[in-house]
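Example record

One chain of 346 residues, shown exactly as stored in the release files.
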Amino acid sequence: MKTLVTGGGGFLGSAVVRLLVARGDSVRVFSRGDYPHLREIGVDVRRGDLADAGAVADAAEGCEIVFHVAANAGFWGPYESFYRPNVLGTRNAIDACRRHSIRRLVFTSSPSVTFAGVDQEGVDETAPYPDRFLAHYPRTKAEAEKLVLAANGPELATVALRPHLIWGPGDPHLAPRIVSQARAGKLRLIGRRPNRIDTVYIDNAAEAHLLAADRLSWHGHPAHDPRAERPCHRPVAGKAYFISNGEPMPVAEIVNRILDAAGLAPVTRRVPEGVAYAAAALLEGAYSVLRLRGEPRLTRFVARQLATAHWFDIGAARRDLGYEPRVSIDEGMRRLAQWFRDGAGE
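Predicted structure tokens for this chain:
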């Protein structure tokens, strides 16, 4: 199988690439940067901008399936910096599939496309898109997801996956940010409610993408897939799926387990939710008016995320994709701790 992985040099993209290579697929990646470590394992590395339709189409030529993983996943910046990679880039990926008669597209979405700033406890895929988004990232990811699901049809089978808070060895975002904030004495918990949140270990998130791709090959055929460990009882094309470890924990517990893996003391100091949200609004205003570089220490979207519950029913992924988290949070934390001990997380 010849595959294209956009964002194949990123945290999740690299994990998807490694699994594809391990099972014998021919892999090409399309990213802004160069990745010699991928070339060393036989990956065809192409560089370019997702907003460049011609470059995306050229990268997709000759491929049989596209994993569209690339995105701007930040929570601060002008709308255009999110729209171009997340919406325009997704439209270009869809158009490239159609141009080259590629039959399958697996899209990496986000649970934040359903987040309205209130608790989400055990919600499933029937949760609607909110009327108003708290940041450009979830807004543009929702726009992109809608494009992908609307593109599903007889000539192109599409599916959207919504992995939540991916972490593990090699994580350049979640764990290092928590650790750096703790070391600087700036880390605080928000609110006093024991809000439970979902996370997903990197290997589980990557495996979900391959499972979805394999089920798309049975587009329109709800019969049993003989290659699957479980029966595929219904088609997955045109659908979105929440992906997590299925082990929701209070946000304080997951944060402190990451700190423990890094050899740091737990965080206990808390800030009232209202105070945190007001401070985030002030910071955003200051950064916008003064045109400060970087990003605010806290945004309103992040404040709401940290102060609310958001965990999801992954029953549909288990049933339709045959997804089962193989690496538990306990095992993942052991691997994360080893990564920190090896100095890779510094």
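Notes: Residues 188 and 270 are 5 Å apart (CA to CA).
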